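Batch 3, record 17
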Amino acid sequence: MKKSRRDFLKIAGGTALGTGLSVLGTKGVRAAPKKKATPKGPVRIATVGFLTGAAAAPFGIPGNNTYKMLTDVINKEGGILGRKIDLSDYDEAGGVDAQVKLCRKLILDEKVDVILGYISSGDCKAVVPLSDELGGLIMAYDCGTHVLMEGDKSPYKVPKYKLGFRTKAHLGIDNIGLAFMVKKYLPDIKTIAGINPDYAWGRDSWLIFETAMKKLMPQVKVVGTWWPPLFTTDFTAHISALMGAKPDVVHSALWGGDNVTFTKQAMGMGLFEKIRMAYSRGEPYPQEVGKEYPEEQIICCAGTHYFLYPPHDKWPLNKWFVEKYQKRFGKYPTYPCYHAYQAMYTYKHAVEKAAGLVGGWPTIEEIAKAAVGLSIQTPSGHLMIREDHNGVEDVLLGFSKRVPGYPFPILDPKRLEVFPAHMVNAPVGIRTVDWINSWKA
Amino acid sequence: MKLHLKKMIARPKIIIYLGIIFVLLFLPRILSTFNLILFEYGLTFAIAALGFNLLLGYTGLLSFGHGAFFAAGAYGVVMIAKYFPELYSMEILIPGALLLSFIISAIFGFLCVRHTKIFFAILALALSMLVYALVFKFYHITGGSDGLYVKIPSMFGITFEGVRRPQFLSGIYYYFLLCIFVLSFIIMKGIVNSPFGKALQAIRDNEVRAELIGIRVRRYRLYIFIISGMFTGLGGALWSFINGHVTPDISHWVFSGEIVYMTLLGGFAIFEGPIIGAMIFTFLKLYAMGSTVYWMFIMGITLIILVLLLPTGIAGGFKSLTDIIKNKKFFSGEAYDVNR
Amino acid sequence: MWPIYILNGLYFAAFMFLISLGLNIILGVMGILNLAHGSLYAIGAFTAAWAIVALGKGASITFIYLSLISGAVLAAFFGLFMEYFLIRPLYKRALEYQLLVTFGALLLLEDVMKMIWGGEAYYASRPFDILGKIHILGNPYPAYFLFVMIAALFIGILLWVFMAKTKVGTMLRAISLDREMATALGLDIHKLGTFAFVLGAALAGLAGALVVPTTPALLGFGMEPLILAFIVVVVGGLGSLKGALVGSLIVGQTRSIGIVIFPEIELALLFLIAAVILVAKPEGLFGR
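Prediction for the assembled complex:
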């Protein structure tokens, strides 16, 4: 009896104390507790992307250019909480193993504040786990494999990594979007095929596309899948094999130099006379290949990243971004550029939000907590970062078409489709494949 | 007098070794975490290179395919993690990796030891590339070019949930690795100084004569090939915990070439040479990669200078220097005649 | 589509033939496996790409095609350099050293290419675009591939005539058959060795130059062709020209048809074939 009364008093007392403190807390005594000193030096941001090799020109360099451009913009406005950004860039070349070692060096030896980087899904898969392992903040800015943040079963616990983020939506939106597009505009096709690079990105892209197609158009047959290794330079045998299989539409997640080389070789071998390609990441390549780029190819923009969308009159941030990039670098920005914007500004806003809560420069754990639920404006619209540390976006798709006024085919304005985020992003904690399989088609 | 002299020459080495081991025990306190991890990389490469040198320095066979065994050890670890997760403890992983290396080196050895010189090198290269291609292509088993993550295993009943890898590596793993290294050193030294080891050197120096005095050349070559492969595989398994990630690159012939490079850098004529070579190579490569974008140029030119000017490697060059200082004859006691 | 698959295989075999020819000549005459051979191929590709781009859109067709030879020339020059500084000092040393020094050369040349041409991809497709497509049994096929096949055949015949009928060619064959005897008979091994090395390098560079209109020149470009050339040498036989021909055909057709029938297999199938040959007949089909 005595014990329970003591316990009761403990509980009552504790509750009173707690309530009192929380009341005090909400009364604006927030600023008082700990005022951390803002460190004096610059914020050290390391970016990692392909600076050499086939992926450099269409991808790594535009991304890098954007980081440089935005650093100048932010520094001119005073930096992040008064600290200027000290940007250093690193080459994502050398393969997965070299990237693991580089990441370790950046976090343990160079002790950078954050790494914004990684284009290749293979590199991401290996490097993002290092964020928790080594205690460093990593924001993956361009890679797409959905398995990066997903668990083994649905539902799975989120977040998978406390300090690892992906400041964009994953490949689910590209490939589910493609399936919707095919169903809407090409409902009578009978056969599909796939040619995808043989690693996580390619394998996972095809997996999602195939799963979605089975649900939406179960009558369509797959006549073949091809898996050239990443950075293959000779697709001629694959192109002939594709033409021999006679598919109506071919799905491809080929990107970077592979996409350019494939398209050029395919043009030379007459593939586009008989076959339509559906590129899950096709947006940069009409500009790269030039005016000979074939028309009527289905192109996905990895989000709504496109220099003409949202229209400049309706969304001034896109107008600003496109004009500024074009003025400085002579080309229209492509989706790696938009992704770079998202990474940089997610970090900046997360730091600012966290600083508001803790007073002074936040720790990386505090920044990570603040990033969740962040919703920021981007040149493409809005980006939201969810509890699973993934970004969520709408997706834009279209057909390539030559339109006067542009030196390369653009997306046919009459058939631009935007699928909203909730149609193409699996809910938090549910695996994308399981989600698609649960649809009623 | 002569007997005393011999004992005194023998002892300094052991004293030096004990001294080095003593210092190594305190390394986690002296070095930063980052440099300690580099040192551990060096140790695993040292084990792999020592194993490799059993074949090169002592038996006269150059293999450009030892990466396959390194990969056997490393992939042995991750395959057990993937398919037998209940067995994921160090006590099972090390023997498992050794077993896989044994199998692969036995198969390769059987095919390779029928040949020598250029054929041997080509065959080893081709077989290791076959392993590379298979590991690369079987995406759903091995993770293909993405590779597989290496979780921290439990060791002797202790699990490491929630422990970050740098902590693990600067703690119990360091001492474990050091023990295995010392053990491997002693075993390999024993092999080299045994009658078997002497027979191998006889085969290296003159195959025909060795056959004539009754040494079973092909069989001995096979045995040492397997032993060599197993030690390299051991290095690979130990490496996998440090790297945290395993990719097919370690079976590629360029990586095998790095193992050869390390051995040559340190000197293949002296037992300890590969250790020195592995250490220097690890730090040299990192230094080069960190200071310039043209690091392959540095590595390439270093190798070329090494081959042209210092063929006995750094240890060999050092030994020659100490020989001159001790006023011994320049060519006496060289384990390997460079100008065959 | 089968005529196209076979043509693809022939095209692939053609440039495999050229690059493995070079490797084989060096291996046969000098006994060296040149691990930097892929780098010489890449140098040829970069040089030709640069030349084509530099000539610009207005240049005449003949010039464009002639510029491909620049690839062979520069590769030959690098080969000369290599032979003089790296291989020659090691003539008397064990074979292992020669292998290692070419490995060092591979690392070195990779960055030399980066220094000269930077990290970007070089697209130089004019020679390919000019020739356009022809139709074979109703299927479109780029005429440029036929050009490459004809060029390879031409060079193969030229080389065969050279080896069989000319004095220098005979001397080279003599050295590759029996080096000691050739020296005893008074042949200048050093000069002929240099010649063989430079010839091998030029062939590698030419192969790179011919391929570059179809595919971008990039760093790391030479790694896969080196491995493929290696497989051809292993399958066809060390030091044998006939072996290079047969080996290239086998490798080329297997790759082309393999991709149609077993899309997953790619490189692994080729290595399997090489491994089988190495086990059954290690000297290769036509080797000694």
